[in-house]
Amino acid sequence: MTLLEVDGIDVAYGDVQVIWDVSFSVSEGETVALLGANGAGKTTVLKTICGPLAPSAGTITFHGEPIGDLEQDEVVPKGVTHIPEGRDIFTESTVKENLRLGAYTNPDGMADQFERVYDVFPRLEERRGQQAGTLSGGEQQMLAIGRGLMSDPDLILLDEASLGLAPVLVEDVFDAIERINEEGTTVLLVEQDVNNALHIADRGYVLESGRLTLSGDAADLAEDERVAASYLGG
Ligand SMILES: Nc1ncnc2c1ncn2[C@@H]1O[C@H](COP(=O)(O)OP(=O)(O)O)[C@@H](O)[C@H]1O
Ligand SMILES: [Mg+2]
């Protein structure tokens, strides 16, 4: 069953249009990868889904309900969580406090979600009293994902979760995403790391200069030389 449906969206910053007629869907339980070179418009698409931007044309529906014009604080309670590029954690607060803030729409489920997050990321439980700004890059990424999970989302939007991490941590982060998906959360991810992304994804879409140019099963895209070319071509 379709969870997220993006239908023919255009998106602009002021007068400058950067997304043209983009359509794709994500079904319940899937992991879908949105791929493309730097500047292709991946972050813009995620921000349009989760609230800060609105499409100038087209529609976005979630659970069959239009969400394109909603703000972020209206989208989170509906079950969409966004883990932005660059993590965006509260560096002065502790790990536990960061997680608690992620549950602001879900106070009743907070204890269960703490348990789930600590189960996926035991490292965060060990360091729950530590100031978030003193965590390593990989731990900060785990915290950002963990905080997103605290709202008990149906759909998690992940923007460049592996960027800047050492290879061993990249593997940990992808393992965690895979596990979160196996536990029932649908995932839409944007990644520079195409190989890892297509390894955990069911399907993928390729965005080039604001337009979708290719889509298919992850295994087929992983073999398709046009995917590599789209990264080089920009
Ligand atoms: N706040 C902004 N104001 C104006 N242009 C922007 C802004 N953010 C991104 N852009 C432009 O939109 C295009 C797509 O950017 P982005 O969505 O960040 O791409 P990606 O995430 O694929 O690297 C780029 O040309 C970028 O320069
Ligand atoms: Mg981006």
Automatic annotation (TrEMBL):
Domain ABC transporter: 4-234
A GO MF term: ATP binding
A single BP term in Gene Ontology: L-amino acid transport
Transmembrane intervals: none
Pfam families in the cross-refs: ABC_tran (PF00005)
InterPro entries assigned: AAA+_ATPase, ABC_transporter-like_ATP-bd, ABC_transporter-like_CS, BCAA_Transport_ATP-bd_LivF, P-loop_NTPase
Listed SUPFAM superfamilies: P-loop containing nucleoside triphosphate hydrolases
ATP-binding is among the record's keywords: yes
Keyword Nucleotide-binding: yes
SMART domains: AAA (SM00382)
CDD domains: ABC_TM1139_LivF_branched
Signal sequence region: none
Domain of life: Archaea
Assigned keywords, A-Z: Amino-acid transport, ATP-binding, Nucleotide-binding, Transport
Family: Belongs to the ABC transporter superfamily.
Annotated protein name in UniProt: ATP-binding cassette domain-containing protein
Organism for this UniProt entry: Halobacterium bonnevillei
